[in-house]
Amino acid sequence: MAIDKDSSKRPANTAFKQQRLKAWEPILTPGPVIIAFIVIGIVFIPIGAAIINSSNKVLEHVIRYDDNPNCQLGQKCTINYTLPTEMESPVYLYYKLDNFYQNHRRYVKSRNDDQLRGIEVTDFSKLKDCEPLITTDGSEDVNKILVPCGLIANSVFNDSISLADASGNLINLTKKGIAWQSDIDKKFKNYPENGVGVINFSNFEDEDFIVWMRTAALPDFKKLYRIYHGQNGPLSGTIQIRIDNKYPVASFDGKKYVVLSTTSWIGGKNPFLGYAYIIVGIICFVQGVVFAIKHKISPRVLGSPKYLEWNK
Amino acid sequence: MKLGKLKIRRKKARPSYPIIEIRPNKTTENDVNKSKGYKSNDISTTKYTRYNFIFKNLFEQFKRITNIYFAAICVITLIPQVSPLSPVTSLLPLIFVLVVTALKEAFEDYRRYKADKASNYTQYQVYRDGSFRLIKSKHICVGDFIRIDNDQAFPSDILVLSSNLEDGICYVETSQLDGETNLKLFKAAKETNSLTQEQLLDLNANIECELPNNNLYKFKGKFTLQNDNSTFSLSEKQLMLRVSGARLRNTHFIIGIVLYCGKDTKLSLNQKNPPSKFSTIETRLGRSVIGIFCFKVVLVIIATVLSSLFEFNTARDSWYLRSDFDSLGFTIVKNFVSYFAILSFLIPMSLMVTLEVVKVSQAKYMEWDVKMSYKENKKYEKQIEQPQEELKIKNEDKTTTTTISPNGDIELSNIVAKKEKSKILNKYMSVKNSNLNDELALIKYIFSDKTGTLTENRMLFSKCSINGTCFDGAMNQQLLDEVTSKTKNEESIREFLLNMSLCHAAVSDVNEETGKITYQSQSPDEIALCDCAKINQFEFINRTSTHAQIRVMGEDKQYQLLAIMEFSSDRRRMSILLREEDENNDNNSTETTPIDDSSTTDIDGNLLTPPPQLTNLKKKGKIILYSKGADSIMMERLSEKESNSELLEQTKEHISQFSREGLRTLILAKREISQEEYSNWSQQYHEASTLIHDREAEMERLNDQIERGFELVGCTAIEDKLQDGVPETIDYLLKANIKVWIITGDKQETAINIGYSCKLLVPEIPIIIINAESTEECGTQIKRAIENFIDPETQVDKKVSMVINGESLTFVLKDHSADFLKIAAKCHSVVACRVTPLQKALIVRLVKKSTKEVCLSIGDGANDVSMIQEAHIGVGIFGNEGTQAARASDYALLRFRHLARLITVHGRYSMVRNSLCIKYSFYKNMAFFLCQFWFSIYSGWTAMTLYDSWIVTTFNILMTSVPPYFMALFEKDVNEKIIPKNPHLFKEVQDCHLFQYRSILNWLIGALYHSVVFFFGLYFFLDGSGDMVNQWGRIGGKELAGSFCATFAVLSILLKAAIEIKHWNFIVHIGIWGSVIVYLVISLVDSSIITQIPNMYWVFIYALHLLKFYVMVIIMIFIALVPDFTLKFVRRHLSPTNSNIEQEKYILNRGKNKNNIDNDEEI
After folding, report:
1. Which of B482, B609, B914, B923 is most exposed, with minimal Cβ within 10 Å?
2. Can you spell out the DSSP letters for B154-201?
3. Gap between the terminal Cα atoms of chain A
4. What span, in angstroms and rounded, lies between the C-alpha atoms of A144 and B657?
5. What's the CA angle centered on B69, arms B435 and B1082, to 5 degrees?
6. Domain of A271?
7. Beta bridge partners of residue B372, listed in sequence order
8. Least reliable range by pLDDT among A66-70, A238-242, B250-254, B472-476
9. Is B320 inside a domain boundary?
10. For residue B785, which phi and psi values (nearest 5 degrees)?
11. Which of B310-314, B472-476, B590-594, B649-653 has the lowest mean pLDDT?
């Protein structure tokens, strides 16, 4: 019995324990590497060209209005703008802000998502995220809770923008669909009309509100405002942009724009992606060719003892 | 004899171990020893109890500076005003690390607890209240009589009083501990062994012992019998130690007294943890972490300055931010702390834990390796069996007489023999310090013992020189033929064979079934000598404490044993003092003096007292001192007449010849002692043996006094057989750019010949010989060597080997260290001969400190312990000579040949794996989290995190935890089949170039590049200076941007691992691609929980619907990784390393031989 016990201590001769599991050990042979580089080049360059072509087809017009002498803060104004080419529908109308830090840590955190889903939150420990805008006067009175609370919801962009044709007829713009569908479905629900707190605004399902509440990644950003679906044909000629300038940005050197844009399968106007593909493709292709030439002219034979250090 | 009671005498207190008082009729109530403060035998080796585990373990873990660092980060994240991250980002990983480590500690401690409990609750027969009772080990006390039965372990350090075997001999087996198959011999003092058990238990005595100490191999004590105030000495021969794995063997039982308990046992005192040895990689890792920390602090300072500027220039003018108007100082502190937190992940938290687990796993691979384990021993066993059979066959032809009664339990011998064989089969190497796995790859110097390390530790008698004649057929009964044919050498040969059969410390073992006698000894030389004498029919039968018995050509002879002077490394000789007792003399003598029977009775009856003067007794039979030893020692002890004889010259010539053949030589000598001289010497010797202090010195002086004036009997030559594979292994190690030094106690010629036979020395390489008798001569020889072999002009050094002896080393260590190292550091190999054990350690220390290279020492015996502990890495070999070397080492091997595989395969792989694991861990954290810093440029320097908190939390512990771990477990830069054929490949890892600071810096620069690619690629693809517009014209927002960036980063980081891995088994595949899947799963979950993570709801799912997402991810991965891949390919193609070439050769050849079965070549 003792001998049997001892036998169980014998180290197992399994592949795992002897480190002999079957394994692939690549040695970077030139052929496959060269072919891979050339194939990557051949594939990437057309993709890059296609991206650039699509990006070039995107029409985008950026019109600043806050520096217009006729559009001072508090004024209503009309800006005439002549489109050089027709804009096929859909055309997206954006407002664009520069030097506005929606990604400031203090700003981003200042919201309560439960409240935005229509829940009457009265627990101040949960509302703490909304600092410094929790109640109207900073007290802990549930009846003075701001609805909605937080910095983001209390700084919603409130300029109004509309379009008219050269004759002064309003162009029909659609508001529906400017926000994420998942936001509309799940994240934002209207607050009860007679709910607790000081209700400044209860229509949380408003898509302008939802768009604003999705904070931007960078300090210069644009947000989708309206969509033109082409009921009256493509936009062309001179259009009137009617603006009610109410949102102050001058104190922090901000800028305001209206942007008219179309899109493509790859998104908005941005050639960088295409250039990246072309450059990488060219680099890979050139490398492949250079390696192929090197391999043709003076190949290094794999596994040749000539290159061993102790044979030199 | 009367054992009467005596009054207890009060003695003056001494700074020593209290006297153990043994009293008759002792009961639990009146045990005087209880109040003397002896330690309890309750064993406790655990570090924790169930009550203090949590607190103590946390305390231990927070000694680790990285844990303190990350705990500080946790505190920061708990402050809402300051923290840019949610607390989970730091708490969860820290808790994960703490819990994993705590579980490991708890598991180990529980095992200790169970071992302690098993030990404490084992029951032993202890004499209490008038009878032997079964007492738990924990209740055993100092002074208890205890009975140990066969196959039992020892609960304490026990003084053996008697055993069932004759002369109080008993055997201890330690094969469970070290695989050593020889039984260790212990022997009760004859004063106590002669008593009956009843007399023992009625003893009235005092025992004085030295203070508890950790010397396992020495013990001094004094035993005083109170009834007649007689005293005798105690030594390590009587002290049976509580050593785990040691068991009583071949002995029915022993009766002993407990001397040391619990923490006072020598085992416990040796259990202090040795100072930790750290590898080079660990040192560099520590410094790299500090470097990264400094880099992080610089970033934090930059960010703090810029954030404060933003605060005062921009934020306060922004009405929508409704800024607090804090003071400048408060703003700066707040911003500093925030950035410190957000950039904290540049240092990977779990790297230390990963490395610990990984090193333990690597150690398991070593222990599991069949090429370094039991497979080897099957061959070894077969080789052992064959010579034994040959000996038996020859004996059967000649021996006709009946056997003598056995000493022990014969059936047990058979069982033990079987167990011993099976134990050899099951033994495998063990790793005691896995911290040094990668250090094995950096070894530049190996210092090796010879006997038992390079050699089999199994000697074969080869030749001898007797009376000026050389005999080389002794093992074929040539000597017996000479005796029976009564040649001129008959008398000399007879004396020679008597010396060999009597002058030794071997123990005989009789097999009752066959009647064959075999020998065991701690020295294999002695077994060889006994076997040779036996073959020539001078057969050693038995030895007791008073008599020795041999059989000479079928005729029994008995000698009275007067004294034994044992062999030691310092004495280098052994002697035995005997009186002939020839029972046949009465019949043959013409003039017979009647034997005085009353005198004989008196001597036997008074053994407990000093022997009286014997001048008045007339005894027949000469007193003879037989001796054997190293020739340099013995020659100076020959009588003056002998020193000038022609016989000595002839013998010297034979000795030189034997040495040139690499044989191990001993000189045999004898001397007749007069009765008067013996009486005087014996009286002094007995007095010296009872001294507590300076006992060794005094006894040695007396031994030296009598071991002089010898007649030369002859010289033996024994073949010290090399282990299998030793020449090939040494040749391999030398070609692997490792310098090998053999350090041996042999004399110069023998050492040189061993050097040639094991390929340490080769004919093509010249040898420097340093053999000086003065320090001036030594300096001269060294300077000449430097002039001859070091060319200052061309700086091209020729290959050279060196032989230096111990005496010269003494001069070197004292006066010529610097010069010696100039030449020694250039030597390809070195043989140091005539070296003492202390010098072994001094040599290692000298080379280690001056060259700063990694040194490894390997040995198998007690003499090697100091050099094993001195070296950076100590390797012990399980062998016959002892357990000390294996116990003191970092790695314990079965055979020397396994050393090459340990270093060049396992050491290499550990270096490759650990360095890749560490560099990749640094890379992945830097690449991923540095994006947060870049994002600050566009978020107003507010420490806003780009990634979601849950992504930050799981990045280290889930998404990217597997690749570094699997790299460290499975990576191989070359296939292991290549390594045995190409020792030169070892140079590539030997200089630690894989883990140079520059190599680490290259990885970090790559991480910096990748982080720039990830973030600024995102920036430029955000419509230039807008936000991301998708194909429906909708805007993405910050969360979507963060999700994109996380995807670029995680996928690129995982694919970077794929580019670096050279060995893909299916587990590695699962690890890499599985991690990609884990990332996708985590992101989807992150996007699906609206109540807990509302800001991330639907974000990743939304991304998956965008064409732009896929287009961007693909190009980002290529921008990040194409440069890495190209650089790798170009570097490999333009300047390949040796391992690249060899691996290519192997792969291509393997493809050609798909149908052939691979032959596993062993190193």
Report:
1. B609
2. -SSEEEEEEESSGGGEEEEE-HHHH---SPEEEE--HHHHTS-HHHHH
3. 61
4. 111
5. 85
6. 32-58+266-283
7. none
8. B250-254
9. no
10. -65, -40
11. B590-594
Judge if B866 and B960 occupy the same domain: no
- Closest by CA to B1049, choosing from B935, B911, B906, B913, is B935
On whether residue A295 sits in a domain, the answer given is no
For residue B485, the enclosing domain spans: 462-582+619-719
Q: What is the DSSP letter of A16?
A: T
pLDDT at B1027 over 60: no
Tokens of B331: 């703003």
A:B CB pairs within 8 Å: 277
Residues of A in contact with B82 (CB under 8 A): none
Q: Which residue of A has its CA nearest to B938?
A: A218
- Summarize pLDDT for B553-564 with one digit per residue, the tens: 888 888 888 888
B741: left (phi over 0), alpha (psi -120 to 50) or beta: beta
Cα(B44)–Cα(B57) distance, integer angstroms: 18
Read out DSSP for B805-821?
A: EHHHHHHHHHH-HHHHH
- Secondary element (H or E) of residue B1075: helix B1066-1086
Identify all chain B residues contacting A133, using CB atoms and an 8 Å cutoff: 322
Check if the beta carbon of residue B489 is closer than 8 Å to that of residue B467: yes
Q: Are B100 and B353 in contact (CB under 8 A)?
A: yes
Which residue in chain A is spatially nearest to B1130 when comparing CA positions? A291
Could you tell me which residues come within 8 angstroms of residue B615 by beta carbon, excluding any fewer than 6 positions away?
Answer: B675, B676, B679
Structure tokens at B872: 């950076």
Taking an 8 Å cut-off on Cβ atoms, the answer to whether B419 and A180 are in contact is no
Answer yes or no: do A38 and A89 share one domain. Answer: no
pLDDT at B276: 66
* Chain B residues within 8 A of A34 when measuring between CB atoms: none
Which residue, chain included where needed, has tokens 């990743």? B1100
The reply, when asked if residue B664 is annotated as ligand binding, is yes
- Mean pLDDT of all residues in A53-59: 88
Measure CA B906 to chain center: 17
pLDDT of amino acid B467 = 86
The encoded tokens of residue B117 equal: 């409990």
CA distances from A69 to A64, A82, B161, B839 (A): 11, 19, 117, 98
Q: What number is the average pLDDT over the span B814-820?
A: 84
Q: What is the residue-averaged pLDDT of chain B?
A: 79
Query: Among the options B167, B264, B449, B525, which is catalytic?
Result: B449
Looking at the structure, tell me whether residues A176 and A248 fall in a common domain. Answer: yes
Among chain A residues, the shortest Cα distance to B419 is held by: A3
Single out the residue of A159, A137, A145, A148 nearest to residue A110, CA to CA.
Answer: A148
> Is B184 among the annotated ligand-binding positions?
no
Give the CATH number for residue B467: 3.40.1110.10
Query: Is B449 an active-site residue?
Result: yes
Looking at CA atoms only, how far is residue B944 from chain A in angstroms? 5
Helix (H) or strand (E) holding A241: strand A235-244
Q: Of all helices (H) and strands (E), which one includes residue B305?
A: helix B280-313
Give Rg (Cα) of chain B: 38
Facing residue for B1063 by CB, picked from A23, A105, A183: A23
As given in the structure block, the two tokens for residue B56 are: 């103590």
Provide the pLDDT for residue B375: 46
Give the angle subtended at the CA of B711 by the CAs of B707 and B712, to the nearest 5°: 110
- Does residue B924 have a pLDDT over 50? yes
